[in-house]
Amino acid sequence: MQARTIAIIAGEASGDILGAGLIRSLRRRFPGARFVGIGGDEMIAEGFHSLVPMERLSVMGLVEVLGRIRELVSIRRRLLDYLLTTPPDVVIGIDSPDFTLAVERRCREAGIPSVHYVSPSVWAWRQKRIFKIAKSVDLMLTLFPFEARFYEEHNVPVACVGHPLADRIELETDTRGARLDLGLRVDTPVLAILPGSRGGEVERLGTLFLEAARWLQERQPNLQLVIPCVNRDREKQVQALVESLEVSLPLTLVRGRSREVMAASDVVLLASGTATLEAMLLKKPMVVGYRLSDFSYKILSRLIKVPWVALPNLLARKELVPELLQDAATPEGLGSAVLERLQNASERERLHTEFLALHQMLRQGADERAATAVADLIGARS
To answer: In the chain, pLDDT over 70 holds for what percent of residues?
Structure first.
């Protein structure tokens, strides 16, 4: 049998990790397969051939995209020329939907089976995008069950594969060990504070979260406050915000290691986003806070079609963690919600049970399930 050629397109570090795991699992099914497309170091280490450096696709923000639009169009044209000239057995786009879905659609129109791995947030807003997606893919691979239900309702072939983080994070968290590794006291409570990883988020939420921490410190002086900073720039930004406070706040800043900081905590105060999933998998009670500009919030609040923003609530289909958004996100409101969870042992135990069940639901062996779904599609088209 002729060796398979499998094309994969990843545009971000998270997609590179997913792609590497998928390649490992697909190679067990297709030992002589060739993997080609766009990917990063993780995929290249698995024998992947990247036609373009992945970082050329890693663009965030409207201004940055506009500044690079000609290059991105050129990369897409070059990639499509290659795929349509030497058709692979399947093309798989991982996340980065603005780039990958257009490539998938052209390939599908040319008779090449197409797969998209990681659903866009079409279930939450701009739901009419589902019709474009339906024309672009033969199979959608989702990380969460509620996403798969949405595609099933719209008759788009879908497989829920679970979330790779659920496979990698242990079912039980070693809180004491994490505190020792970080040099924290093991016998006094810890609050992990995560105002976001991007400069704009830290600017918008950092002072708010620090004021909530100060409110808490006045009521529980032995509380250890820890903020993980994704890099040196964010660390300097947070330090400047701390120094701008009128009252000194005892705070530990940690470069990176956000998962360890959350593992060491009793409660997590954080912005909405993927970090809420990680905190849930670590079985940590959390309080979610977020603010946008009034203009952005008015627009988005009309577009959003789901009742919650935090992933634990979306997964459970009920409110497990408090969401304090926009005007509700005040220092006193956030601080009170955190304090309640610090002091309520029975609530922490209840949440542990709920989070454990969700963790087990998502722990499906994502790499293997995704590879099986792709292999079945290839087999059906052979």
So the answer is: 92
Q: Per-residue confidence at 333, pLDDT binned at 50, 70, 90? A: very high
Residue 321 lies in a domain: yes
Same domain, 105 and 188: no
CATH of the domain at 294: 3.40.50.2000
Decide if 311 contacts 280 (C-beta within 8 A): yes
Examine the domain organization and report whether 285 and 325 are in the same domain.
Answer: yes
Is 358 inside a domain boundary? yes
Q: Are residues 284 and 224 both part of a single domain?
A: yes
Tokens representing residue 254 in the block: 């940690």
Cα separation, 336 vs 275, whole angstroms:
21
Q: Are 30 and 375 in contact, with CB atoms under 8 Å apart?
A: yes
Q: What is the pLDDT of residues 221-260, one digit of tens each?
A: 999 999 999 889 989 999 999 888 877 788 999 999 999 9
What phi and psi, each to the nearest 5 degrees, are found at residue 290?
-160, 145
Distance (Å, whole) CA 285 – CA 355: 9
- For the stretch 298-331, pLDDT in tens is 656 665 666 788 999 999 999 999 999 988 999 9
Check whether residue 210 and residue 91 sit in a common domain: no
CB atoms within 10 A of CB 191: 26
* Same domain, yes or no: 184 and 313: yes
In Å, what is the CA distance from 126 to each residue of 31, 303, 306, 310?
40, 7, 12, 18
Amino acid of residue 239? Q
Helix/strand/coil for 228 = strand
3-class SS at 130? helix
- Domain ranges, residue 63: 5-162+364-381
Q: Which residues pair with 5 in a beta bridge?
A: 34
% of the chain beyond a pLDDT of 90: 76
pLDDT-based confidence at 61, cuts 50/70/90? very low
Concatenate the DSSP letters of all residues of 319-343 into one string.
-SS-EEEGGG--HHHHHHHHHHHHH
Residue type, 33: A
Indicate if 139 and 224 belong to the same structural domain. no
For the entire predicted model, the pTM comes to 0.86
